[in-house]
Amino acid sequence: MAVRLLAYEVSDLCLGKPPLRSLPVSATLADAVSAIRYSDDGCVSVWNCDHSSPDKNDAVDDCRCVGKISMVDVICHLCREENLLAPSSALKSPVSVLVSKVPGRVRHVEPSSSLLEAIDLILQGAQNLVVPIKTNPRRKLQKSSPNPTAHNGREFCWLTQEDVIRFLLSSIGVFTPLPALSIDTLGAISTEFLSIRYHSPAALAVGAISSSLAEQTSVAVVDDEGILIGEISPFTLACCDEIVAAAITTLSAGDLMAYIDCGGPPEDLVRVVKARLEDRKLEGMLEEFSISSDVSSSLSSFSLSSSSDEESSSSLPRSGRYSRSSSYSARMVRRAEAIVCHPWSSLAAVMIQAISHRVNYVWVVEEDCSLAGIVTFSNMLEIFYQHLQSMA
């Protein structure tokens, strides 16, 4: 079984993965927002080849994915002081302004790369591994019509930390006795994490939110005694409209948690955001926020009035810029409540907990709920990587 695990290639982890939807690096942030809204994973890949031009005949090797953009990137960008004054103008910027300048965040790999090589790249800092999809000979890509997933006749998918962890969990017996050991015993708990006080302005967390997105973690919200109250999660923010930047700018960290919690923002917080935008004379953001709030309220009222008719409630209008009720997309959303474990929790239990909640981390708390640290997929992969190397 151990020999078979080491023999697995990246292509084995790609079975059933959908092809990447992409944007050219010349696209605008408004284009990115539109593409993200129809994306299943809340982000879109950015490529340095413009295959929308029929006269473009780039070689396959010249068509490269240079990064990815999520709604959180857009939200943090709009939170900048100069963009709060004119959010519409900010959305006309090219997506290149949000592509990470840190090399290696997105890496192209061959389908024949080994599982060990893939884990090694992730531990070096790669968030996504871009892999060519082995196309069925019977299925030829249409060249006559635009295809947002094709690059010079080829399609790609990408692998994430979660994909690798899920794959390892399916063969967890190979790693005995590691899965049964506590995360404390294994040294999997990191005491370096991002946090903000409950009553602090949420705007102070913009840098931390951006960092947590890059590190695929979250920002803990704690009280004055260090007790974990909740979190500001990029995963939750990614399910919101870009206009949530107005809430981040005007609310406290605690109020922001309530604002982005699944189900939509409370009306009293919506009024608070509007009032504070007026006080700060942020007319551009106020206008965008007011339009978004009005449309969300209309859609919410429509949904409530149709709640007795499943067919009616499932056919809410989705066209145009404001296609999501109460600032939330049709994708799965998660509450702002933090997912926690304890130092004595087993590695296998924490893996299952993270995967079931679709997060790349789990907060570690003591018996009194004080925050002790965080366990990330990266921490877990380091443990498995060392074990796999010893098996090799």
Question: Could you write a compact summary of the structure shown?
Answer:
InterPro entries: AMPK_gamma/SDS23_families, CBS_dom, CBS_dom_sf. The protein is α/β, with parallel strands linked by helices and 392 residues long.
Give a verbal description of the structure:
The chain is α/β, with parallel strands linked by helices and 392 residues long. The protein is 38% helix and 14% strand. The chain contains 17 helices and 13 strands. A four-stranded mixed sheet has the order 4-5-7-6. Strand 4, helix 7 and strand 5 form a beta-alpha-beta unit. Helix 7 crosses helix 17. The protein is flat.
Present the secondary structure layout.
Elements (H helix, E strand, L loop, with lengths): L1 H6 L2 H4 L8 E3 L4 H9 L5 E5 L17 E6 H8 L2 H5 L1 H4 L15 E3 L6 H9 L4 E5 L17 E2 L2 E6 L1 H9 L24 E4 L8 H10 L3 E4 L5 E5 L1 H4 L7 H6 L2 H8 L6 H13 L3 H23 L4 H4 L26 E2 L5 H10 L4 E5 L5 E6 H15 L1
Parallel strand pairs: 1-2, 4-5, 8-9, 11-12
Antiparallel strand pairs: 2-3, 5-7, 6-7, 9-10, 12-13
Helix pairs in contact: 7-17, 8-16, 8-17, 13-14
